[in-house]
Structures are given as C-alpha cells and as structure tokens.
Write a structure and sequence with these properties.
- Chain C: Residues 4-236 form the ABC transporter domain.
- Chain C: It comes from Actinophytocola algeriensis.
- Chain C: This is Branched-chain amino acid transport system ATP-binding protein.
- The complex is a heterotrimer of chains A (336), B (286) and C (236).
- Chain A is mainly α and 336 residues long.
- Chain A is 71% helix and 1% strand.
- Chain B has one domain (2-277): Orthogonal Bundle (ABC transporter involved in vitamin B12 uptake, BtuC), CATH 1.10.3470.
- Chain B is 74% helix and 3% strand.
- Chain B has eleven helices and two strands, in the order H-H-H-H-E-E-H-H-H-H-H-H-H.
- Classes of the chains: A mainly alpha (336), B mainly alpha (286), C alpha/beta (236).
- At the A-B interface, helix 5, helix 11 and helix 13 of A face helix 4, helix 9 and helix 11 of B.
Chain lengths: 336, 286, 236
C-alpha cells in the first residue's frame, strides 16, 4: 500500500496482556503429570494414567481436524487401528516399535487424504455421516481379512524388556507411563507448532465460515487435507503405542465405533479446538470409566457408558466449549 | 434361482422396516435440521419396551405395538424438551455430539437395567405362520413386520404431506422464521416431529422383536441403515428415505446369499459410492 | 488503465437468466456503483467476479488476466477483495485474529501478518475492539470488520456488497469516510448499494442492471436523465 490512512480519531491496538494464567496452567498440569506415577503406585491407577495419555494423543490428532478445522469425524478409529495393525505387522517383521511409528503415521496420513478427497466436498452433518460410514465399513471388512488375523486378531510378538523394544514390566507400569507422557508431550508440541501460524488461522477460519475463508484467499480443500493428514498421523501414533501396551489387536479393539466416539468425544468434553481439551477430557473420561467399571459395576451391569453419555450431554448443553472453558471462567472470576 | 428369489423376498421384507426407521430419522432432520445419532437406539429401547410387555404381562408383540409407539413418543418428547431444545441455537458441534451422548447413555442405561444378555420373545402369535408362494417361504413375523412397516410409513407420509399440521411441519423445516411469521409455533412443531420419530421407532421396534434378538446394541445396525437410507434418499425426503430403506434391505438379502460376511459392507459401499458420484443423494435436489 | 473487465457475462439458473450478456469495464483507481432494483442480478454478478459462482457464458478479466471460473481463493490471491451482504465474520476469533487470517494471504509469517492486521485495525478504527470475539460485535461493527478484513488481504479491487444498508446516519457517515480513505489509497472499488443518494454522491461512475441486463453505464448526472434507468426504478 502506498499512503497510510490513519484517521485522526484512530486509536492504536492495545497490546494483549501476557497470559500468565496459561503459563501457570501449563506448569501445574506438567508437574501433576510428572508426579502422578510417584503417588499412584497401584497397577489400576497406572493403567488409568497410561490409557488416559494414549487417548489424549489420539484426541489431540482428532482435535486438529474436528476441533480446529471444524470437520467432525466419527471415524478416527480407522487411523488408530492403522497404528495398531501396522506396528504389530512391522514388529512381527523384526522392526523396533519406535521405527514403525513414523512410516505408519505417514501411511495413516495418506489414508486420511484419500478419505478426505471425496468426503471434504460434504459439509457439516453430511461429512460426519460419511466418516461414520467409512469407519463402520472398515470395521465390517476387517473380520474378513485373513492376513490381519480376521476375527481372531494379531498378537505382538514377545520382545525383551527395554526402551528400544518399547516393552517394559507390566507389574510396575511406571515406564509405560513415562513413555506415554513423553509421546504425549511430543504430539502436543507437534500439534502446537502445526497450528501456531498460518495453518492454524486458516483451519479456524474454515471452521467458522468456509465461504468467508475462501474469500480471504484460503484454499479450503487443500487446508482440510493438510488437517486430516496431520490429524490421522497423530492418532495413528497413539495406536502404535497402544498396541505395544496391550500387545494385541483385533477388529473390535481397533476400529470399533465406540473407539471413534471416544476419540472424538474426549476432545469435546475437555474442550474442542483447545490444546487443553484432549488431556483434560482424557483424564476425566478414562478415570471415570475405569472407576465405574471396576467399583460400581456388578456382572454385566455397566454404568460407565451411562456416565460418559450423561457427561457428553451435559457438556453439549451447558458449555459446548468444554471443561477448559469452565476452568477459564472460574479462573477469571477468581482474579476479579 | 429359487435361492435368489428367497433372498430378494427376505431382503424386501427387512427393507420395509429399514424404510420405516429411516422415515422417522429423515423427518427430524428435515424439520429441525438435526441428526439424531441415537435414532437406532430408540428402536432398541422400543424392542425392550415390547420385551417388558411380553415378559411381565404376557402381552404379545403385536398388541404391544401401540404401547411401544406411545412409550417412544414420550421418550422422544422428553429427550427433545430436555436436551435437544437447549442446543438448537448452539454450535453445530454441540448439536452433533448431544445425540451421541444420548446414544451412549441409552446403551448404558439399558445394559444396566437388563444386562448385556440377549433376550428373545418365545412363541409370538405370528411365530407359527409360514406361507409358501411359488417355492418362496415367508414367515408370519416377516409378513407382519413388512405390512406393519409399510402401513406406518404410509401413515407418516400421509400425515406430513396431506394434513394441515403436516404442511406446517414442512413450512417450519424450510424456513422456521418465515413459518413463525405465519403464526406457526416452531417449538411445538419440533416437539411434534420428535414425537412422530418416536412413534416410528416404537412401531419398528415392536415389529422387529417377532424375529430379532434383543440386546443393548441391537439398535446399531438399524441406526446405521437408517442413516444410509436417509443419505441415499436425499436428506429430508420422506419418499426417498423409504425407497432407499427398501433398496438397502434387498441389497443386504442378495449380498448375504453370496458373500455372507459382507452385507453391511455392501450397504455402506453403495452409500459411499453414491456419495462420490452424487453427494446430494439419489432423490435430493441439492 | 482497465483493471476489471466484464465481457458478455451470463448466468443461468435452470432456465432463468439471473445475469444476461453484461459487459462493462472498471478503470483502475475509480469508485463504481453497481445499482439496480431488487433481483436485478447485482449479487450474482459480484459472486462471479469473486469466483464464488461460475458464469454460464462470457469472460471476466482482472489486471489483464482471464479469471473466468477461478476459485474464490484464486481470485482473492489475484487481488479481488470482497465483503458479504449477510455478514460472515469469523465469529470465534477476535477482531485482530480475523484480520491476521486475511493478512496471511500475502504474509507467511505470523509476525508480519500480525503487523499488517494491527495497522489495518487502527486505520479502520477497530482498535478498541481488537481483542473482542467477532461474534459479540454489533451489526455496524461487523460490517466495518468485513471491510477491514478485505483490506487486510491487500486487494487491488474491493467489492463491497451493501456495506451501508442498515446503518444509522452517523454510522453511514463514518462508513462513507472510510470508503473514501480506502479509495484515496489507490484501491479500486465497486460497490453494490440500493441507497441511491449515497451512491450518487460517492460514485462518479454507475453501472445499472435491471432484470439481469445492463441498462446504463455512465455518470450519476446522466443516469437520472436516462429513460431506462427511470423506468427501472420508478415505472412498470
């Protein structure tokens, strides 16, 4: 532009306040996560921790596409399953589990793009139903595929304990926990770096109004594809880790609709479109689920599903921005 | 050839129930612009309603149809008032996940009340009937469910397209603000739509228990079939959904004959294919 | 120099022609008013220039390039900025984030996009709203944000779709002065409006549509003497 056009009345943009609250929040959560296994010594509590962190990674992936770009997928179990099956197959072939993660994540990203190419023409509900159908389609095909173990599934071969083999003692799960924590930290930083600049702005613009986004120069389809690639890759890494923890994969443990639902709704409960969402949601949902399953459920009678369902309804009705927004509102009230 | 005819018949009879379920779903979408992901689970709840009638009072599923219909209408209205109305003005995310929460809740609640053990109605009235026409056998349960579903679908379609109230529903679906200017209470119409969807799932559930097992996940298949039928038929189109439901039943019947493990895959495959070629559905205009 | 040229552009929906065989040119650095009664095809024509709709026939060129049938984001990249008649701000973002998103079109890094956004924010007098979520703004401020957001893409041509309608007299005066400032920067403007007095005073050139057809191009003084224009607005 040539001339500037500040009118006489123009007021400069006030500087944004330093977000001390956010820094404090990060510090508190980081300390809690690191200290947890030192306090939580039972196998039960450690399993909650490992599972929550795994689901938080998967949800962080979902959050990029669903929370930031606003394309709500109910088929993310496909990518989680890609991680589980892919890592199992490669580890059986003699790979180190760590080395399987990146190539399998890349495969998941490609898969995500292939799914995205036809489905991103659909908007809103239509897109969500398509992802639901694709997820169910995969689930319906898996039991018929022999080289993936059909209905019996596949077992991860027995490996010696050690970091390189991502295999640790199951009696004390502290090592699994810290490995999961490390992966979660890496995934969160990766997601943050991915979303920090132009891509993040563009994805949020697409979520808010895709027509307006294209009018300010956002190539909408292309950015949705970026989002699904990153999203699928992160979710598959969660699957890769998970299969090393449970050492077994079958169609219902890898591609179930309820897994897709959990991946999506954990982020929603915690806060869709917020970096906080997955970790807050995962701990709340997984802890609730494991406690009710273990202590409140008589044979065959489960109330964990009921509680999870009620929690989702509550979040949707009370504040669709999730738990993190409740915390933020509480914090603001306290400061005032 | 005989086998194929039999498979086609079985499929068509099942498809009639899909059609009924799909009509309820498409109605809710057409009028309130919301997808009820728990729609299939309403059918599951209706199945349990029929089961309770049978096991506690010895009421046959045929006679339980109106009871199940009323129960589900009530459930649907309560759901609407309790959790749907509060999110009508909210974000799309909230609207989408709230019924997912409902789905999860209903499955959990039913499993809590009845455990996950599959249930079955022993000796329903229609159980002994078996008609053979030209070598193709039709059971009484199939006959009743197909006829019942077609009658109920026809009644719903008649209500929506031929009555004053039905036209008001359509008006609200097309333009809620405009309809309210014409003096139509859109909130009441939304409630009515949910009640109608409840009736359709109630009837479907009661019809199904004559020949289907009952368990907390029984609604999943019917739910996804309804969704596919609605998507194929063009969202909001009653006749489209009914036709697509029938079609899906036939496809399942025929595919089941040759590739028994792939019935669901085939139905989903058709949907995804249509999605790529014609995103607006087979009959939809947009 | 001609910046935008619309050549024989037609748009049919089904059998109906919303725009038929319209041709006109917009010289660089001018303000052109695109007017006509309701349903004359103004918004459809706008959409086609901005790439939101593809013409059934005809050619649109911008800065010497044929942009017919380009995607909206390609048109934006070429230098066509627009506002929407029904405001479409990014509701969950703050005003500054809205502008930063738009500025990213020509600025890859967050810092430089942010700097542009802050400058545009101050220039358009939105400074005091900078950190407010856009969804919470009043209608008039949203319209101002729409204009600011289009400016943040550093356009050569700005398409303004009824940015003045629904404003109070004070707001209208502010908006007009803003448009004049933007024009003074050298940005070419085409605006759709049916508030006639405003268009007359603001635009030295008018393009008049009626029932999808071009019925007049020229100065406002000539327009009020033109029989076809008078008929379109007053008669029949």
């Amino acid at each position: 532009m040539t001339a500037t056009l500040a009118p006489p009345s123009a007021r400069p943009v006030p500087a944004r306040k330093v977000p001390w609250g956010r820094y404090a929040g990060i510090a508190v959560v980081a300390v809690l996560l690191v200290v947890y296994p030192l306090v939580a010594k039972t196998s039960f509590l450690q399993t909650i921790g490992v599972t929550a962190l795994t689901m938080a990674i998967a949800s962080t992936g979902w959050n990029i596409l669903g929370g930031y770009a606003g394309q709500i997928s109910f088929g993310h179990a496909v990518f989680f399953g890609t991680g589980m099956y892919g890592t199992t197959l490669l580890v059986t072939g003699g790979w180190s589990p760590w080395l399987t993660m990146m190539p399998i994540a890349l495969l998941a990203a490609v898969l995500g793009v292939l799914i995205g190419l036809p489905t991103f023409r659909l908007r809103g509900h239509y897109f969500s139903i398509a992802t639901l159908a694709i997820g169910m389609m995969v689930m319906s095909i898996l039991p018929n595929i022999q080289w993936l173990g059909a209905t019996d599934g596949l077992s991860v071969p027995f490996l010696d304990e050690g970091f390189w083999n991502l295999t640790f003692s199951l009696r004390d799960k502290t090592e699994y926990y810290y490995t999961a924590l490390g992966l979660f930290a890496v995934a969160t930083v990766a997601a943050w770096l991915f979303l920090r600049g132009r891509i993040g702005s563009y994805l949020e613009a697409i979520r808010d109004d895709d027509v307006a986004a294209s009018a300010v120069g956002v190539p909408v389809r292309r950015y949705k594809l970026y989002a699904v690639a990153m999203s699928a890759a992160l979710t598959s890494i969660a699957g890769s880790f998970h299969v090393m923890f449970v050492t077994f994969v079958d169609p219902s443990s890898s591609s179930d609709l309820s897994l897709s639902t959990a991946i999506a709704l954990i982020a929603v409960v915690g806060g869709a479109g917020s970096m906080w969402g997955p970790i807050l949601g995962a701990w709340l949902v997984i802890a609730l689920q494991e406690y009710t399953r273990t202590y409140l459920s008589a044979t065959g009678r489960t109330i964990d599903l009921m509680m999870f369902g009620a929690l989702i309804i509550l979040v949707a009705v009370v504040d669709p921005r999730g738990l993190v927004n409740l915390v933020k509102r509480g914090y603001r009230r306290v400061r005032r | 050839m005989q086998d194929l005819l039999q498979a086609l018949t079985n499929g068509a009879f099942l498809g009639a129930v899909f059609a009924l379920a799909a009509v309820g779903l498409t109605l809710v979408f057409g009028v309130t612009n919301m997808l009820n992901f728990a729609h299939g689970d309403f059918i599951m709840v209706a199945m349990y309603a029929g089961f309770v009638c049978w096991s506690l009072a010895g009421i046959d599923p045929l006679i339980a149809i109106p009871i199940a219909a009323l129960t589900l209408a009530l459930v649907a209205v309560l759901v609407y008032a309790g959790i749907i109305r509060p999110v009508l003005g909210s974000t799309q995310l909230a609207q989408m996940v709230v019924t997912f929460g409902l789905l999860t809740f209903l499955r959990g609640a039913i499993q809590f009340a009845f455990t996950a053990t599959p249930r079955r109605i022993e000796d329903p009235i229609v159980g002994g009937i078996r008609v053979v026409v030209g070598g193709v056998a039709v059971t009484g349960a199939q006959l009743v469910s197909a006829v019942g579903a077609l009658v109920a679908t026809g009644a719903l379609a008649w209500f929506v397209y031929r009555t004053e109230t039905g036209r008001a529903l359509q008006a609200v679906g097309e333009d809620a603000a405009g309809a309210s200017l014409m003096g139509i209470n859109s909130g009441r119409m939304y409630g009515l739509t949910w009640a109608l969807a409840g009736v359709s799932t109630g009837v479907a559930g009661a019809l199904l228990i004559n020949n289907f097992g009952i368990d907390p996940l029984a609604g999943a298949t019917f739910g996804i079939m309804s969704f596919i039928a609605v998507a194929l038929g063009g969202f909001g189109s009653v006749f489209g959904a009914a036709l697509a439901g029938l079609l899906l039943g036939v496809v399942q019947g025929v595919v089941g004959l040759y590739l028994s493990g792939y019935t669901l895959t085939a139905a989903l495959g058709i949907y995804l294919l249509v999605l790529v070629v014609r995103p607006q559905g087979l009959r939809g205009s947009r | 120099m001609t910046l935008l040229s619309v050549d024989g552009v037609t748009k049919r929906f089904g059998g109906l022609a919303a725009v038929s065989d319209v041709s006109f040119e917009v010289p660089e650095g001018t303000i052109t008013g695109l007017i006509g009664p309701n349903g004359a095809g103004k918004s459809t024509l706008f959409s086609m220039i901005a790439g939101a709709q593809r013409p059934t026939a005809g050619r649109i060129s911008f800065a010497g390039k044929d942009i017919t049938g380009w995607q909206p984001h390609e048109a934006a990249r070429a230098g066509v900025g627009r506002t929407f008649q029904l405001m479409r701000v990014f509701g969950s973002m703050t005003v500054l984030e809205n502008l930063t998103t738009a500025a990213h079109l020509r600025h890859r890094t967050k810092a430089s996009a942010r700097a542009v956004a802050e400058r545009v924010c101050a220039e358009t007098n939105l400074g005091s709203y900078a950190h407010r979520p856009a969804a919470t703004l009043t209608g008039a401020t949203k319209k101002r944000l729409e204009l600011a957001r289009a400016l943040a893409t550093s356009p050569r041509l700005l398409l303004l779709d009824e940015v003045l309608s629904g404003l109070t007299p004070t707001e209208t005066a502010e908006a007009i002065s803003l448009i004049e400032q933007v024009h003074a920067q050298g940005i070419t403007i085409v605006l759709v409006e049916h508030v006639m007095q405003v268009v007359m005073s603001l635009c030295p050139r008018l393009v008049v549509l009626d029932f999808g057809k071009l019925i007049f191009t020229g100065s406002p003084d000539d327009a009020v003497k033109d029989q076809a224009v008078l008929d379109a607005y007053l008669g029949a």
